[in-house]
Amino acid sequence: QVQLVESGGGLVQAGGSLRLSCAVSGSGSTRISMAWFRQAPGRQREWVAAVSSGGSASVADSVKGRFSISRDNGKNTVHLQMNSLKPEDTAVYYCNAIGTWGKGTLVTVSS
Questions:
Q1: Max Cα distance, the chain (Å)
Q2: Could you give the angle at the alpha carbon of 57 between the alpha carbons of 55 and 63, nearest 5°?
Q3: Of the candidates 99, 104, 103, 105, the residue with the CA atom closest to the CA atom of residue 2
Q4: Angle CA 91–61–39, to nearest 5
Q5: What is the pLDDT of residues 35-90, one digit of tens each?
Q6: Which helix H or strand E contains 4, and what residues bound it?
Q7: Interior/surface letters 41-60, b for 16+ CB within 10 angstroms, e for the rest
Q8: Cβ contacts of 11 within 8 Å, gap of 6 or more
Q9: CB 49, CB 63: distance < 8 Å
Q10: Rounded to whole angstroms, how far apart are CA atoms 57 and 90?
Q11: Where are the beta strands (DSSP E) in 14-59?
């Protein structure tokens, strides 16, 4: 069973950057596709980015050009690099793999 632990959230001013990490542990954790989702207050959870087991990455149109996803298989970690942050990026960010969710990490972007 896979366990996911997110980290790296915090408070940042608009235009700033944050790097989120998701530490993966459990059986088969080095060969699975991973994704980041986010949920803003009062809104549905939405997909942000994904990376396949082979490293192919994709991001949502809403964050394209600002966010990027990468994985470090040696450290069993997936990262979400977030640049040029906007107040509308404020949300709890969740890591997901094989239907398993982490507890999330809060990102707050002040204007």
A1: 42
A2: 150
A3: 99
A4: 20
A5: 999 999 999 999 999 999 888 999 999 999 999 999 988 888 999 999 999 999 99
A6: strand 3-7
A7: eeeeeeebbbbeeeeeeebe
A8: 108, 109, 110
A9: yes
A10: 22
A11: 18-25, 34-39, 46-51, 57-59
Mean pLDDT of 15-31: 86
Spatial separation of the C-alpha atoms in residues 74 and 66, rounded to whole Å = 25
The rounded radius of gyration (Å) of the Cα atoms in the chain is 13
Give me the sign of the Cα torsion angle 53, 4, 109, 90: positive
Please measure the distance between the N-terminal and C-terminal CA atoms of the chain and give it in whole angstroms: 40
| Kind and range of the H or E run holding 26 | none
99 has pLDDT over 70: yes
Distance, in Å, from the CA atom of 79 to the CA atom of 23, rounded to the nearest integer, reads: 9
